[in-house]
Amino acid sequence: MIGNDIVDLALAAQESNIHRRGFIDKLFLLHEKEMIATASQPSVMVWLLWSCKEAVYKIVHRATGERKFAPWEFACRLSSSYDDEGTLPREMSGRFMVSSPASMSGIVVHQEQTYYFQSRIIHDYIHTYAAVSPLLLAQMRVFAGSYAVAPSILPSAAVLYKDESGIPYILDRETGIVTPVSLSHHGKYFGMANMP
Amino acid sequence: MDKVAFIEQLREIVKPYAKNQAALANINASTDFINDLKINSANLVDVVLDVEEKYDIVIQNEEMERMLNVQAAMDIVEAKLSEK
């Protein structure tokens, strides 16, 4: 199973006040709060961790059909270095800029099941995609970019549809084959992950 | 608790986060915060914090995880207020 999540950092900064009392405490675990507190850009770390939890929530929701707002059930750990010099987005007059794309990977543990994720911070957005195994993660077809181009990225024979639980699939009208897809939209950006 | 009054108070709380104004105008007990009001999932925590502040209560994790619609919010607040 697969999941993905995209965060438009400029919109996130408008929509959420991460400094309000209780915000960090309700969403993050102790070790995650330490990661946020020690990050050179705490706000970017907040949204990176949040996108990991969301991407894995989508996998769990797809598997169980159960809706829950329980971010503390998703424990994130980064395995690759996040604070590599020169790759971090810098906040410049309200805009996040990144000189070169930063890439992170790691795991999210949910109810004793380990999920693997890959995150990329490109310009002013974070895209995270996740799967139940490293192999599946490597095989996934992933797209992230401007929401404006979203309608053009699927093959012409493909149709998106959602089942009664709101879980999305791609139907290939020519072959009749149905494949699971994970969709994410936030502000100017759109993310998608599906199986090859 | 007066249900109509509670829904009115909740409407004011969710107003800044709701992206579907038509659903906000028609808010009722079965309104879902995400599916109907199109509240960003990251803003659900703001709804929880605003409800805590408004009613001077502390919402536990087990309660927060099911606070996805108006009815659930009402049940949680009602239970908390009756404990006071």
Polypeptide structure, described:
- The complex is a heterodimer of chains A (196) and B (84).
- Chain A has 196 residues and is α+β, with helices and mostly antiparallel strands.
- Helices cover 26% and strands 38% of the residues of chain A.
- Chain A has 5 helices and 12 strands.
- In chain A, the strands form 3 sheets. A 5-stranded antiparallel β-sheet of chain A has the order 1-7-6-5-2. A 5-stranded antiparallel β-sheet of chain A has the order 8-12-11-10-9, with no helix packed on it. Chain A has a two-stranded antiparallel sheet with strand order 3-4.
- The longest helix of chain A is centred in the N-terminal third of the chain and has 23 residues, at 42-64.
- Chain A starts with a strand and ends with a strand.
- Residues 82-100 of chain A have low confidence and may be disordered.
- Chain B is mainly α.
- Chain B has one domain: ACP-like (Non-ribosomal Peptide Synthetase Peptidyl Carrier Protein, Chain A), CATH 1.10.1200.
- Chain B contains 5 helices and no strands.
- Chain B has helices spanning 3-14, 21-25, 44-55, 61-64, 70-83.
- The radius of gyration of chain B is 12 Å and the shape is globular.
- The chains are: A alpha+beta (196), B mainly alpha (84).
- The A-B interface holds A 12, 15-17, 20-23, 26-27, 50, 54, 67-72, 166, 186 and B 17, 35, 40-46, 48-49, 52, 61, 64-68.
- Chain A: Residues 2-76 form the 4'-phosphopantetheinyl transferase domain.
- Chain A: GO terms for molecular function: transferase activity.
- Chain A: This is 4-phosphopantetheinyl transferase family protein.
- Chain A: Keywords: Transferase.
- Chain B: This is Acyl carrier protein.
